[in-house]
Task: structure prediction
Amino acid sequence: YIGVFMKLALLGRQALMGVMAVALVAGMSVKTFAAENLLNKVKERGTLLVGLEGTYPPYTYHDDNGELTGFDVEVAKAIADKLGVEADFTESDWDSLLAGIDSGRLDTVINAVSITPEREEKYDFAGPYFYITQQIVVAKDNDDIVDMASPDGKKEANTATTAYLDILEDAGASLVQISTADEAVSLIESGRADFTTFNSVVFNEYLQQHPDANLKVAFVIPDVVDTYAVPIKKGETALYDAVQNAIDELKEDGTLSKLSEDYFGTDFTQPQDENAANTDTASEDATTESTDEN
Result:
């Protein structure tokens, strides 16, 4: 009997050790998962890594003192504050920004990022937080481009990742790739491109800074309202939920509406029909005498 009891005791100890090992591995797995959760990393470092251009007024730009400012800069700071951290900005050309999310160099990009089906395959979009129509902009003496049938055979100055590339290529336009709005304008004024895209607030801002620009609005892209949102890498559900909750709270407490009024003179943060009307009216007023690239 003694031998039997000793064997049973040995088996019991082995079983206990097995259970403890499984528990240890499970605990390590939970801790590893928690450590790899991007929201936890954001909170541990105390910063939300935000990519932007810094050359896209009035969304992201530098003021006369060289300070980074703009509507999206303030939106990013407000979202980070809701998360209990600070926004840490990295400036780069538009075409490389979303790749920063893919590589882990950035947590997100807040720079007038449009929601598109292609982008939704890679990112979950928190928001939207901004709604606006888009315009086709041409040289003042260009009377050939007047509607969506006009771009056929024409050259479009834009970034390779613009949200409107497919629409305009389907209309027959070919892309002349650029990195900034200034490059697009230069190509149009030199005759090397026929048109580009701007939303009204960006174009109005450009005309204020360049009153002698040889540009005008040809038409508004019909039946399309551009929506800006905050891209989060798929699978990072905790960070997505936290950013979505932050945006919801910023809408509810009026922060986003106030920022829009401050920078644009109207509220583009609500999906209302009058936004499109305000956009079209503003663009017509600004161009009777006289890109959005994302």
Observations:
- Residues 2-36 form the longest helix (35 residues).
- The two ends are 81 Å apart (CA to CA).
